[in-house]
Amino acid sequence: MASVDDEAALAVFQFHESRGGVRGLVEAGVTTVPPLFLRPTTPVSSAARSMVVPSIDLSLPRSHAVALVGAASRSCGIFQVTNHGVPAGTVDAALSTVRAFNEQPFEARSPFYSASPIGAITYATIPIPRPKDGQPATAPLMSWRDSLIVRFDYPADPDLRSLPGACRGPLLEYHRSLTSLGKGIAGLLSEGLGVGAEQLGQVEGCLMQCHYHPPCPEPERVMGSREHTDGDLFTVLAQDGVGGLQVRLDDGEWVDVAPVAGALLVNIGDVLKVVSNDEYKSVEHRVMIKSAQESRVSIALFFNPAKHDESDFFGPIPELVTAEKPAQYRSLTWPEMLNNRIDLGHAKPSSLDRFKAI
Ligand SMILES: O=C(O)CCC(=O)C(=O)O
Ligand SMILES: [Fe+2]
Fold first, then answer.
1. Could you tell me the pTM of the whole model?
2. What is the 236 CA–ligand 1 centroid distance (Å)?
């Protein structure tokens, strides 16, 4: 007899075979959410509270911006930046091209659908990883979103021929512009720790995930993204005005992060939490689907040190290790970090416990 896991794997396989993604379900006129997407736990209503994320004007004098970036990264691990130098047209064009690609008819977009990468590109509904320890799953099998993912640290240069033609120009221009912003933010984050601007080294926006969340007939029964921390140094996120992103506060409460026109969000990831010796917080976040009518588009660009191969170690910056605050983590390799996330099925703040030095 087929086990529950086998049945789930078959259902996911069959869903991929349809090549339509979540958008395909909406096109087919579903009025109830298929089991693959149902949250196993009781529906969680949207957060009542809205959080005003610290906002940092990057045209401020540098010492001022550094102090604000340091304070926000210590207190909540997320902030938004304005006057960031990325033209509004570049952000809008990237968000619009992702929306337009996903809203094409099935025949135009399904040839790109592939659950595993083709070259450096994936376009699919990405299943939510399951924990390997047999713990009961607390998330649906799949998120209510279709993602177009580009790896820029692919061993060969990203094979951009697999990127849908109309998206190529706007997404590469967005990546180019964000790369220079990311370098600036790395410097501010580094100085915010009280160490030189170069301490985080050369960073690169190595992975770009463009998410399209179709409207959902039963929004409260699905998740746009289950709760997680990012596994990078930091992430820069562009989102449209629909909303749905939430962060978990220290008291455990989830609050909405309201979109702010023109601002880009920056959140700290697990690697920077380790490198900063726990000075900075890696913020837990998730995406709720807000609407039965509107689709939501977001683009997350994940920044890491340019050198992050199998043989590269990272750990707390030596200047941040003192007698009062010894190293909180041993140094670790990128595969260790990655495998740990795979084992756990998803990452939460405690997922770094395995690397604790004390
Ligand atoms: O869609 C969003 O707002 C967040 C996406 C996200 O958290 C991620 O891709 O890691
Ligand atoms: Fe994330």
1. 0.95
2. 10
Distance 237 CA to ligand 1 centre (A): 7
Q: Which residue has the tokens 């983590």?
A: 329
Compute the radius of gyration of the chain from its Cα atoms.
20
* Euclidean distance between CA atoms 137 and 9, whole angstroms: 14
Q: What is the pLDDT of residue 310?
A: 84
Pairwise CA distance, residues 180 & 158, whole Å: 19
Residue with CA nearest ligand 1 atom 9: 300
Query: What's the pLDDT tens digit per position in 33-81?
Result: 999 999 886 555 555 688 889 999 999 999 999 999 999 999 999 999 9
**Interface TM-score (ipTM) > 0.95:** yes
For ligand 1, say whether the CB of 199 is within 6 Å of any of its atoms: no
Q: 158-190 in b/e burial notation, b at 16+ Cβ within 10 A?
A: bebebbbeebeebbbbbbebbbebbbebbbbbb
Name every residue whose Cβ is closer than 8 Å to that of residue 53 and which is 6 or more positions away in sequence: 76, 78, 79, 80, 257, 260, 265
Ligand 1 pocket check for 298: Cβ under 6 Å: yes
Interacting residues of 309 by C-beta distance below 8 A, sequence separation 6+: 334
Q: Report the C-alpha gap between 277 and 271 in whole angstroms.
A: 10
| pLDDT at residue number 228 | 92
Pocket mutation for ligand 1, best pick of 209, 229, 301 (most atoms within 8 Å of C-beta): 209
Quote the tokens at residue 265.
Answer: 């969000």
Return the H-helix or E-strand segment holding 285.
Answer: strand 285-287
Domain count, the chain: 1
Domain residue limits at 64: 4-355
181: nearest Cα among 237, 225, 247, 256: 237
Selection from 5-9, 48-52, 133-137, 141-145 with the highest mean pLDDT: 141-145
User: Can you give the CATH number for the domain in which 46 is found?
Assistant: 2.60.120.330
